[in-house]
Every structure is written in C-alpha cells, then in structure tokens.
Amino acid sequence: MKKVFFSGLLLLLLPLAACSPQTRGTTSGDRQAKPLAIGAIPDQDPQKLQRQYDKLATYLEKELGVPVKYKPVTDYAAAVTAFKVGDLELVWFGGLTGVQARLQVPGAEAIAQRDVDEKFHSVFIANKKSGLSPVKDTADLKNLKGRTFTFGSESSTSGRLMPQYFLQQAGIKLEDFKGKVGFSGDHDKTIKLVEAGTYDAGAVNEKVWLKRVASKEVDLTKVDVIWRSPSYYDYHWIINPEVKKSYGEDFVKKVQNAFFKLDPNVPEQKEILELLEAKKFIPTQNSNYSQIEEVGRKIGKIK
After folding, report:
1. 251-261 and 46-64 helices cross at what angle (nearest 10)?
2. What residues form DSSP beta bridges with 278?
3. Is residue 206 in some structural domain?
4. 212: domain CATH number?
5. I need a surface site. Which of 7, 38, 68, 280 has the fewest CB within 10 A?
6. What is the pTM of this model?
C-alpha cells in the first residue's frame, strides 16, 4: 500500500518540478537565464536615458533570448564601480570611464561603438553676453583666461578630460579661470548653466549639443558654440567576461551582432538608433582608447 502511495505522489510532483523556476528560461543546458544587467554613464537627463535604454533593453532581450534589465546609476563613478563588482555586465561608457572600468576588470572588452565615436568632438559654448568670440585655433583658447568656466562630470571624456587636455595644449591651467571651475554633472546641466550666464563658457559633448539644438531646447539668442575640438575616440559598449559563464562562450559575439544588426530601415530599430544618436554601430577594441588612457594618467584621472 505504501509503495502505491509513494508512486502516486511521485507522479503528482513530476509536473511541478517541470514548471519550477530553476528550469524555466534557460539559455544553455539546464542553466537558468538571469537578467543581463545593462547600464550607462548618466551623461544626460535621467528621464531621457531611462527611455532610450529601456527601448534598447527590449530589443536586446528579443535578439539575445535572455531577460535584459536597464539599471540606472547616480554618477559616473557609480557606473565604474557597478561594472567592477558585477552589478552591471554591459555598460555604455565614455572613453575615460571605459578605460577606468577595464583596468579594474581583467578580460573586459570594448565591443561596439556608434559610427560617430571613432571621430568624436567636444564643443566649447559661451554665453553671448560674455563677449567671447569664436575660436579658430586651439592656441586661441587662451582667450578664455580670466573667464568663468564649467566642465560636465569630473569623469566625462567629452565634457572634461579632452577639453582639459586641449586647454593645456593652449597653455591654460585650471587656476587661470576666474574663480573655481565648475563641474555641472552632465552635459544638459552645462548647457543650462552657460545659457543662464552662471558661467561664461563650458565644455559639452557635441552630439548632445546638436540634439538639444534640434529639439529647440537651447536658446541660441543666449548661448552658442565658439570652438569645436579635434577628434578623438569616445563612447563605447564594454562587456564583463563573466557573461560567458552565465550565457555561454559565444554570448559576447551575440551581443556584438545584436548592435551591428540595428537597422534604420526598421521603424522600431530606427527609433533606438535615433535615441542613441547613431546611424549604426561598428566594431571597436580596447587599443583604440590608448590616447584616452594616456591623457587620463597625465591629468590624474587614471593612476
């Protein structure tokens, strides 16, 4: 009688085991698919970032066949830390933060960038009441001496690192500005601070500037561009090598292909590309950011 009872109980439990959480959503064999955590440096308004990366997460989830979750962070340093400890596995970094992150995670790879990121530019903007004239050559940046000036985040490549590098080439030190230089936190805030006259001038990511001008979020009667920098490598996606243990040895290639596959002729994908200010994504590699590392070490942002 007992044998019959336990046999019946086993038959009842088998369907439940088949539906248990440990066996649902697998990606390879019997491993459970945990959400892939993606993130980005908070270089723009948080609400704008949430919208664009939520849409990207939905696309990647469909392409990769695993859950994908966008996790916002409070600042640039938090993005690097989250990548280091594994809370974020795929992150959109700027040139500087990307180098900082990779140096702390052996095996981390720069895998994709936008078509614009291999020749990226910063722009210096000025309040029109400041009387600052357009700058034709890097050497003419000396005209900024004695003026008030703000960068973006302290760890921003386009809003601090490279602008400070070009200023140094013109012989300008931070103490040459009037008062203490500002660090607004992101490009949108820099634009608003210079527009309001809080600072005479500031350094901004060119793509953010152009996007805000196009959407008429900038009052061009109050602020405009006075200089466009030489080009440099900037933004890129970096992936943590631990994803191979979670999703398989070929997962990095799958993620790369998902970015390269984004097609402006597909409406949903076109929207994602437009939100990310790209026409397409192209390959990149760690060695492309050697100049960024060199400059970062010179100004003390990489040790």
Report:
1. 120
2. none
3. yes
4. 3.40.190.10
5. 7
6. 0.82
Q: What is the DSSP string of 168-213?
A: HHTT--GGGSSSPPEE-SSHHHHHHHHHTTSSSEEEEEHHHHHHHH
| Pair 53, 33 in one domain | yes
CB within 8 A of 280, min separation 6: which ones?
114, 115, 260, 262, 264, 273
CA distance 253 to 267: 24
As given in the structure block, the two tokens for residue 135 are 């700058």
- Summarised one tens digit per residue, pLDDT across range 148-193 is 999 999 999 999 999 999 999 999 999 999 999 999 999 999 999 9
Q: Are 130 and 67 in contact (CB under 8 A)?
A: no
Give the closest residue to 73 by CA, choosing from 155, 192, 158.
155
Find the mean pLDDT for residues 86-99.
97
State the Cα–Cα distance between residues 92 and 103, nearest whole angstrom.
Answer: 16
Q: Which residues span the domain enclosing 143?
A: 121-228
Smallest CA-to-CA distance from 261 within 272, 251, 277, 247 is with 272
Is residue 4 domain-resident?
Answer: no
What percentage of the chain reaches a pLDDT higher than 90? Answer: 85
3-state percent helix, strand, coil for the chain, nearest multiple of 5: 50, 15, 35
Q: Taking the mean position of all CA atoms in its chain, how far away is CA 93? A: 4
Tokens of 293: 């590392």
Residue 126 shares a structural domain with residue 113: no
Are residue 63 and residue 85 in the same domain, yes or no? yes
Q: Are residues 206 and 59 in the same domain?
A: no
Last residue of a domain, one of 177, 210, 228: 228
Question: If you search the block for the tokens 């720069």, which residue do you land on?
Answer: 110
CA gap 250, 256 in Å, rounded: 10
Q: Domain count of the chain?
A: 2
Alpha carbons 196 and 52: distance in angstroms, whole number:
28
**111 and 128 inside one domain:** no
Q: Which of the four pLDDT bands, split at 50, 70 and 90, describes residue 34?
A: confident
What tokens were used for 54?
């939520």
